[in-house]
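Reader question, answered in our methods column.
A reader sent in the components of a multi-part assembly and asked whether the whole thing could be modeled at once rather than chain by chain. We filled in our standard form and ran it. Here is what they sent:
COMPLEX SIZE: two components
ENTRIES:
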Amino acid sequence: NAGVTQTPKFQVLKTGQSMTLQCAQDMNHEYMSWYRQDPGMGLRLIHYSVGAGITDQGEVPNGYNVSRSTTEDFPLRLLSAAPSQTSVYFCASTQGGELNYGYTFGSGTRLTVV
Amino acid sequence: GQNIDQPTEMTATEGAIVQINCTYQTSGFNGLFWYQQHAGEAPTFLSYNVLDGLEEKGRFSSFLSRSKGYSYLLLKELQMKDSASYLCAVEGYSTLTFGKGTMLLVSP
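And here is the structure of the entire assembly that came back:
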């Protein structure tokens, strides 16, 4: 049981480049979300999804797109990378509802934009 | 709006007890989580409180008062490996709002 898998673990981009951060979970969780973590700022919600075909914006959505075509996958796309998007990105999933066993986080993607 | 406050740093001695407080003001509340995060790693689940009261799990306990918007995480018999950041997070509708985290340093 792999849990939540994020790829890549590290990435360096040039300003203006685009890329996709991958997130996959094998727990059949309905809810998935993306967070970024910056020093002194804590984890902040970028986008989230409550099921296949349904996505919504979080606190800091600008510059990012998401889609949820399957229950398992929730990729995060950077459209035109900026230095302000240098951060550590975490994907999380949860079953939600009354049987709440917590949110499982992936191991993170460390992104540097130069 | 969402506002979650916790101390930035705390220090404690191996074998001691430490309490990390968290106060929150949020527009939605389904429950409160505590996570542990070691440097360079992902957050890992410690506890979840929905109702008022104390939840105990081995050396870790978490308390919630919904009327006061207050929670604490209690760590007993501190070990060096407990040096980490502790994150308080309020669950809204299928997402989490985090505090900025409390860095705990355990010294010998």
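What stands out: Chain B is about 0% helix and 60% strand. The two ends of chain B are 41 Å apart (CA to CA).
Send us your own complexes using the same form.
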